[in-house]
Amino acid sequence: MVDLMQPVSRVIGEHRAQILQKLDGKPGEWTVAALQNEQAMNTVIGCCYELLPGLVRLAVKEPAFRTFMMNNRDRVLAQLAQA
């Protein structure tokens, strides 16, 4: 399987402000709630998938990406919460 953390980390690093804007939050304020909130995670996942490079999206379909992100939600949200 493709290692998705590298492209996901790049997307989060480059587009953190946009992703947080879609969540209507700031780092640290919503992280714990987002860990338990499926709707917030689905928003993050949708944003990240759209921003992945086209070749990655060709190799990894959205359902597999969603599963990966849900399984790694702690790592993803930790990156979003970084200052």
The share of residues in extended strands comes to: under 5%
Rg calc = 12 Å
Number of domains: 1
Oligomer: single chain
Rounded average pLDDT: 82
Strand count, sense and closure of the main sheet?
A: none
The helix/strand series, from N terminus to C terminus, equals: HHHHHH
Number of strands: 0
The unreliable regions are none
**Fraction of residues in helix:** over 70%
Shape descriptor reads globular
Q: What is the number of helical segments per DSSP (H or I, 4+ residues)?
A: 6
Terminal Cα span: 30 Å
Structural class: mainly alpha
What can you see in these coordinates?
- It is a single chain.
- With 83 residues, the chain is mostly helical.
- The chain has one domain (5-81).
- It has 6 helices and no strands.
- The chain has helices at 5-23, 31-36, 38-51, 54-59, 62-71, 73-81.
- The model has no long low-confidence stretch (mean pLDDT 82).
Keywords:
single chain; 83 residues; mainly alpha; 6 helices; globular
Question: What is shown here, in short?
Answer:
The chain has 83 residues and is mostly helical. The protein has helices at 5-23, 31-36, 38-51, 54-59, 62-71, 73-81. It has one domain (5-81).
Show the helix and strand layout.
Blueprint: H1 5-23, H2 31-36, H3 38-51, H4 54-59, H5 62-71, H6 73-81
Helix pairs in contact: 1-3, 3-5
